[in-house]
C-alpha cells in the first residue's frame, strides 16, 4: 500500500472543511496576532508573496516563512506572524469582499507581503485524532520550479493550488467564495501528503507514514481497523521483530500501535452511531468488538461520553 492510502482512509473517517477568511496585503512593518482557536479548528496561512516570521510560543517555534510556504497549526495554538523588523506595525484597515472573506491592508512602505489566512474545521469528535497524532505546527513549501520527474510531487501540486487560490482571492467573480472554500479543503490533504512525502516530520502520523519500514502497518490499520490486529501481525508486515516494531512505533508516534488502532476504531464508531437504525451492538461488532460492554467502556474512556450520549448529541445537532 502507498502512503496516500492511509491519508485517503483517514479522510474517509474524519470530515475536514476549509474556509478562507482573510487576505492580508501589507508593507513592512506589520504584525498579526492570532488567538487560540476552538478544539475542532485548525488555522492555516499561505505566504503567496514576500516573507514572514512565524512564532508559536506554545511549542517554542520561531521560523522564517517565504513565498510558497504554508503553515498549519493542528493544535490550534495562539501564534504571531510579523515582518521581523521589531518596529511598531503600521495601522491596518479592513474591507469585506463580495466572496465573504476580509481584505486587510496597511500603508506600510517596506517589503511587501501577500498572505492568505483561514481555518479548517474538523467534525467532532475527530479533532482528537488531529490533536493526538499531528504535530503542533506543520510547515510545507509549494515548489514551482522542479525537475521534470517531480511533476507529480505534492509540493508541485501545492504550487498550482496556491496559484488558483491567489487568482480567486484577487478577483470578485461569481462562485468565488465556494471555490476558495473547496480549494481550502484540498489544501489540507495536499499539505499532509507533502509533509509525509518529504520525510522531514519527526513525530506523529506523518513521521510514521514517511518511514518506509513502518508505513505498511499504518496503511493496514487505516484500511481495516476492525480486523483483530495483533502486534506480531503488524510487526510481520514491517519485517521486524515484535520488540523492534513496538519500540520504533512508540519512538515515532509517542503512542503505541494499539493506542492508534483503538482511536481509529472509536472514530469509526462515532460515525456509525450517527445512523439511528444501527444498534450499539452492531456498531461494536463493526469496529472489532465481540463484547458490547467492552466497547462501551473503551468508547466512554476515549470520547468522554457513552455511545448512547454521543448518539443523542450527534442526532440532535443534525
Protein architecture, described:
With 318 residues, the chain is an alpha+beta fold. It has two domains: 3-200, Jelly Rolls (Sandwich); 211-317, Homeodomain-like (Arc Repressor Mutant, subunit A), CATH 1.10.10. Helix content is 43%, strand content 22%. It is built from twelve helices and eleven strands. It has helices spanning 3-13, 127-133, 154-170, 176-198, 204-209, 215-223, 231-237, 242-253, 257-272, 280-286, 292-303, 307-317, and strands spanning 16-27, 31-34, 41-49, 51-56, 61-66, 69-72, 79-82, 92-96, 102-106, 112-122, 138-141. The strands form two sheets. A seven-stranded mixed beta sheet has the order 8-9-1-10-3-6-11. A four-stranded antiparallel beta sheet has the order 2-7-4-5, with no helix packed on it. Helix 1 (3-13) crosses helix 4 and helix 1 (3-13) packs parallel to helix 6.
Helix fraction, binned, reads 40-55%
Count up the helices.
12
E-strand count: 11
User: What is the rounded distance between the termini?
Assistant: 35 Å
CATH architecture of the largest domain: Sandwich
Question: Largest sheet at a glance?
Answer: 7 strands, mixed
SSE succession:
HEEEEEEEEEEHEHHHHHHHHHH
Descriptors:
Arc Repressor Mutant, subunit A, single chain, Jelly Rolls, alpha+beta, 2 domains, 318 residues
Amino acid at each position: 500500500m502507498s502512503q496516500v492510502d492511509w491519508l485517503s482512509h483517514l479522510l474517509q473517517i474524519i470530515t475536514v472543511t476549509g474556509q478562507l477568511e482573510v487576505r492580508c496585503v501589507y508593507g513592512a512593518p506589520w504584525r498579526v496576532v492570532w488567538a487560540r482557536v476552538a478544539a475542532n479548528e485548525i488555522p492555516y496561512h499561505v505566504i503567496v508573496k514576500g516573507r514572514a516570521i512565524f512564532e508559536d510560543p506554545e511549542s517554542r517555534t520561531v521560523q522564517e516563512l517565504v513565498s510558497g510556504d504554508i503553515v498549519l497549526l493542528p493544535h490550534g495554538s495562539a501564534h504571531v506572524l510579523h515582518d521581523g523588523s521589531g518596529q511598531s506595525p503600521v495601522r491596518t484597515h479592513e474591507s469585506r469582499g463580495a466572496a465573504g472573506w476580509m481584505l486587510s491592508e496597511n500603508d506600510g512602505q517596506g517589503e511587501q507581503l501577500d498572505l492568505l489566512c483561514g481555518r479548517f474545521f474538523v467534525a467532532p469528535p475527530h479533532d482528537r485524532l488531529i490533536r493526538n497524532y499531528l504535530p503542533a505546527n506543520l510547515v510545507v513549501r509549494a515548489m514551482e520550479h522542479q525537475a521534470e520527474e517531480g511533476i507529480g510531487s505534492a509540493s508541485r501540486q501545492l504550487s498550482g493550488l496556491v496559484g488558483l487560490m491567489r487568482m480567486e482571492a484577487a478577483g470578485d467573480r461569481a462562485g468565488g467564495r465556494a471555490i476558495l472554500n473547496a480549494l481550502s479543503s484540498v489544501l489540507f490533504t495536499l499539505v499532509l501528503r507533502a509533509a509525509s512525502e518529504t520525510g522531514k516530520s519527526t513525530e506523529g502520523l506523518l513521521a510514521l507514514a514517511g518511514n518506509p519500514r513502518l508505513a505498511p502497518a499504518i496503511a493496514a490499520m487505516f484500511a481495516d481497523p476492525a480486523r483483530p490486529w495483533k502486534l506480531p501481525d503488524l510487526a510481520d508486515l514491517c519485517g521486524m521483530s515484535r520488540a523492534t516494531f513496538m519500540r520504533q512505533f512508540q519512538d515515532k508516534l509517542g503512542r503505541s500501535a494499539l493506542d492508534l488502532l483503538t482511536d481509529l476504531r472509536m472514530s469509526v464508531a462515532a460515525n456509525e452511531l450517527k445512523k439511528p437504525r444501527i444498534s450499539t451492538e452492531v456498531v461494536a461488532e463493526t469496529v472489532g468488538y465481540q463484547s458490547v460492554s467492552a466497547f462501551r467502556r473503551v468508547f466512554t474512556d476515549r470520547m468522554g461520553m457513552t455511545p448512547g450520549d454521543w448518539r443523542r448529541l450527534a442526532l440532535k445537532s443534525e
